[in-house]
């Protein structure tokens, strides 16, 4: 995350037309067209100004103050700058700024190109002293750079033997004749739909953009253009989050499967979509395929991804790579050892690997499997389901993919048990940079409590899941988890440096009580040991105390512990487990109530911070809360909320855009990524199918969106541009959320609904470690007798019927069928038939039953 590189201006000295320095008494006179952003630093943020290695930016007293490490040779060895600055060839510009320094030194201001060949436009050197002065110089541009292009303004602060601090303020670049441009967005439709499709039997809703205050007639047309349904929209009025005036359209009653449907209102038509039980089944696997693409330290092979996405292994000490076989700590840490940290997943659009983000990502994949194995359909992730090299090794493929990251997390453990926070390049690399061509040195950041607890939590979770697959590996994981947890308790306040953002994202986390709770929960669920249980029950986060509509993310992980405690049987009091499950339903209800008022329904709380960096992942994490509420209660309203979230991401949004690459008529392509960089290099690919864009970010935290989208409504603060890293990057923790939710949704959309019969089923089971014995009572609640019957249901997890009585039993996959014997086929009205079976394997109780193809109530 946050992988926009500071690129170096050429050192060529160009002649300025005029330059002056006067004592600072105020800002320069305002000009019509200001070309730099955030030159006054009044917001307290330095964005989008960046700094190079050896320079740390801080906002102090409304100024940007750069702490520069001494010992550099050239002025351009230490930089503060801004990219994406527009210039027009032949036009005049004036650059002005205030500056002062702790120790007097020369500082050069320069304009030029941010990428190779780094052509210069102008450069002027100034004598900066401890007294604040106002500097200005004018020049004529010799190059053309559009808005959000490769133009750059930078201050060159190097060439000094001693450390120094230089502060700048009121930075302004005015000139040119073209007004600040806007982006040409993707064309939008007035009828917004999920461009992939809808599931029969589930709600089907769309949004109409219209200022009309009366209902509008809509028609649903099939692929041949024939009208198959019609109705009236419901006016909802102004929607502040999108800036649209909207109506809602509900066509839920139409369930006929097909492709190429469109919704039409007047002359406006939606993008085409399907109605099918299969609309998200492929997405389940493409979302998981993302992780193979992101693997580090191994070739990405064409047989699994196709020729355009195949590439050699990155970061294995093959020139020009300088890692990751034996990576030292940063020079200022002097840890005295190197680590072999090959493997793992590249975090996002850069080549960094981060324990705190890799932790939640691996956990989410493992939890998806654990949930499916206990109460869902684990066969969806069996060996051979994913296109990965391990697909025929006898291990469920989802566990194989997660292991690629779990093994990396183990490698990040220091000898004392703590885990290094991250490993990445010493300096930011340019767009594009193929992984195998990255020539930057690799460095380990310091160990941190948060990273160590991520390791403890995920290793404990993985140990639990691998116990029946590979006992030796499971034991290794548990040993690492115990060691990490003990080390974290001995170092409870080792916080990652929030300013360690050169060459990779900082991922600092100032509060780790949530990670302690999460790690304790995983260790308790795996071991049952009372010491871990005490840490769980004594935590301020216990019983979902931290679960709100804000959800969870890499820096707020307490709900992950709650999810495990709700899914995995432990020694906790039943009332406490019920309290956790109830909390999920309560928060889910809050989401549903808010969604009912939205123009574009989505489980997202924008009441405090608006739409934030990675908003789409927050939508999905909240959808996971809704999904679990459905698992815990069986209430269909929560299931429907999950699908509403997917509809938003797949096109029912104010930008008429699918935020998932390869899905929908108008899907994201140009994500911020150093290899999927076709926008910058036509020989490289676009984002592969299943890659999730970060989504709208009303904070506008990169130069692209700052220039192109000022004043945007929150849900419209997004553009499909490779340079727009604050809205259009990818990340492993965003795709892990997509994989979890799409996997759950695929499981819930497999079969169309069946008619309701006059029957009621009561299911009871006695369980042991390797199986169960179940009794099933089937009651005829109708007014006429049955002459024969056939009971159907699905057994969750890995359960297989081994024997049965009072019925003819058969099983195909998860689907179980019991038909009457010759002596019990007739069941009088109001009477019951009693049958039973034994089964092996693990899993939960069936949740739905049919008699003769029709749905039964459950008792």
C-alpha end-to-end distance:
49 Å
Overall structural domain count: 3
Task: Give the uncertain stretches in residue-range form.
Answer: 1-18, 24-31
Structural class: alpha+beta
Q: What's the architecture of the largest domain, going by CATH?
A: Alpha/alpha barrel
- Order of strands, main sheet, comes to 32-35-30-29-37-36-31-34-33
Assign the CATH topology of the largest domain.
Answer: Glycosyltransferase
* Residues in β-strands, percent: 15-25%
Would you count the extended β strands for me?
37
Q: What sort of overall outline do the alpha carbons produce when their principal axes are compared?
A: globular
Please, how many helices? 15
State the helicity in percent bands. 10-25%
Radius of gyration: 30 Å
Mean pLDDT: 92
Query: Mind telling me the CATH class of the largest domain?
Result: Mainly Alpha
User: What characterizes the major β-sheet?
Assistant: 9 strands, mixed
Structure description:
With 859 residues, this protein is an alpha+beta fold. Helix content is 24%, strand content 24%. It is built from 15 helices and 37 strands. The strands form eight sheets. It has a nine-stranded mixed sheet with strand order 32-35-30-29-37-36-31-34-33, with no helix packed on it. A hairpin with a 2-residue loop joins strand 36 (849-851) and strand 37 (854-858). The radius of gyration is 30 Å and the shape is globular.
């Amino acid at each position: 995350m946050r992988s926009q590189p500071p690129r170096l201006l050429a050192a060529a000295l160009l002649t300025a037309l005029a330059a002056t320095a006067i004592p600072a008494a105020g800002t320069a006179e305002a000009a019509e067209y200001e070309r730099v952003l955030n030159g006054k630093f009044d917001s307290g943020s330095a964005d989008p100004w960046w700094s190079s290695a050896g320079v740390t930016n801080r906002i102090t007293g409304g100024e940007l103050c750069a702490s520069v490490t001494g010992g550099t040779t050239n002025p351009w060895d230490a930089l503060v700058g801004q990219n994406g600055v527009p210039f027009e060839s032949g036009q005049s510009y004036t650059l002005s700024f205030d500056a002062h320094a702790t120790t007097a030194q020369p500082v050069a201001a320069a304009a030029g190109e941010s990428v190779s060949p780094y052509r210069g436009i102008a450069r002027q050197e100034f004598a900066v002293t401890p007294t604040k002065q106002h500097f200005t110089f004018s020049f004529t541009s010799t190059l053309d750079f559009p808005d959000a292009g490769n133009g750059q303004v930078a201050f060159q602060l190097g060439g000094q033997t001693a450390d120094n601090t230089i502060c700048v303020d009121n930075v302004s670049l005015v000139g040119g004749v073209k007004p600040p441009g806007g982006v040409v967005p993707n064309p939008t439709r007035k009828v917004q739909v999920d461009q992939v499709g809808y599931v029969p039997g589930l709600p089907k809703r769309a949004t109409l953009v219209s200022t009309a205050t009366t209902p509008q007639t809509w028609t649903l047309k099939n692929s041949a253009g024939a009208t198959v349904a019609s109705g009236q929209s419901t006016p909802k009025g102004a929607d502040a989050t999108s800036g649209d005036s909207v109506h809602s359209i509900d066509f839920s009653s139409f369930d006929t499967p097909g492709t190429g449907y469109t919704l039409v209102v007047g002359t406006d038509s939606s993008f085409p979509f399907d109605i099918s039980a299969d609309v998200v089944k492929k997405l389940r696997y493409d979302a998981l395929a993302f992780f193979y693409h992101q693997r580090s330290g191994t070739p990405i092979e064409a047989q699994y991804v196709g020729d355009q996405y195949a590439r050699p292994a990155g970061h294995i000490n093959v020139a020009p790579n300088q890692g990751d076989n034996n990576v030292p700590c940063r020079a200022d840490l002097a840890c005295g050892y190197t680590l072999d940290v090959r493997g793992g997943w590249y975090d996002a659009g850069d080549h960094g690997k981060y324990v705190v983000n890799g932790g939640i990502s691996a956990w989410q994949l493992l939890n998806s499997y654990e949930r499916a194995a206990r109460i869902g359909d684990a066969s969806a992730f069996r060996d051979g389901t994913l296109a990965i090299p391990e697909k025929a090794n006898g291990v469920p493929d989802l566990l194989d993919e997660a292991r690629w990251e779990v093994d990396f997390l183990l490698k990040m453990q220091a000898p004392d048990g703590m885990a290094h926070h991250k490993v990445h390049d010493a300096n930011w690399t340019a767009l594009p940079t193929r992984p195998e061509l990255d020539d930057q040195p690799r460095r380990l950041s310091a160990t941190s409590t948060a990273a160590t607890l991520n390791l403890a939590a995920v290793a404990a979770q993985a140990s639990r899941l691998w116990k029946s697959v590979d006992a030796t590996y499971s034991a290794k994981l548990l040993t690492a988890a115990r060691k990490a947890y003990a080390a974290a308790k001995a170092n409870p306040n080792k916080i990652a440096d929030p300013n360690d953002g050169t060459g990779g994202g900082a991922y600092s986390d100032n509060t780790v009580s949530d990670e302690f709770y999460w790690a304790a929960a995983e260790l308790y669920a795996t071991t049952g040991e009372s010491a871990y249980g005490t840490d769980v029950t004594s935590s301020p986060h216990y019983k979902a105390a931290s679960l709100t509509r804000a959800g969870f993310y890499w820096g707020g992980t307490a709900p992950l512990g709650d999810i495990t405690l709700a899914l995995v049987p432990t020694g906790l009091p039943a009332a406490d487990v019920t309290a956790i499950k109830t909390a999920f339903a309560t928060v889910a209800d809050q989401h549903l109530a808010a969604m009912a008022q939205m123009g574009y329904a989505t489980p997202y709380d924008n009441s405090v911070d608006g739409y934030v960096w990675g908003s789409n992942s927050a939508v999905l994490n909240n959808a996971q809360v809704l999904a679990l509420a459905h698992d815990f209660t069986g209430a269909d309203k929560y299931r429907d909320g999950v699908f509403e979230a997917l509809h938003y991401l797949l096109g029912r949004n104010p930008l008429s855009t699918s935020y998932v690459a390869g899905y929908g008529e108008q899907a994201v392509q140009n994500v911020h990524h150093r290899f999927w960089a076709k926008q910058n290099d036509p020989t490289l690919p676009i984002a592969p199918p299943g890659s999730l864009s970060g989504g709208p970010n009303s904070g506008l935290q990169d130069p692209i969106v700052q220039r192109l989208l000022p004043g945007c409504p929150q849900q419209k603060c997004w553009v499909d541009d490779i340079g727009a890293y604050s809205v259009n990057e990818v990340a492993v923790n965003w795709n892990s959320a997509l994989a979890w939710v799409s996997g759950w949704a695929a499981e819930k959309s497999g079969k169309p609904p069946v008619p309701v019969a006059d029957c009621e089923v009561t299911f009871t089971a006695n369980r042991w470690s390797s199986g169960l014995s179940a009794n099933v009572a089937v009651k005829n609640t109708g007014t006429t007798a049955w002459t024969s019957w056939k009971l159907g249901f699905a057994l969750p997890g890995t359960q297989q019927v081994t024997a049965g009585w009072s019925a003819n039993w058969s099983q195909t996959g998860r689907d179980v069928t019991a038909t009457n014997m010759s002596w019990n086929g007739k069941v009088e009205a109001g009477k019951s038939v009693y049958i039973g079976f034994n089964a092996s394997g693990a899993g939960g109780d069936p949740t739905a039953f049919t008699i003769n193809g029709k749905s039964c109530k459950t008792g």
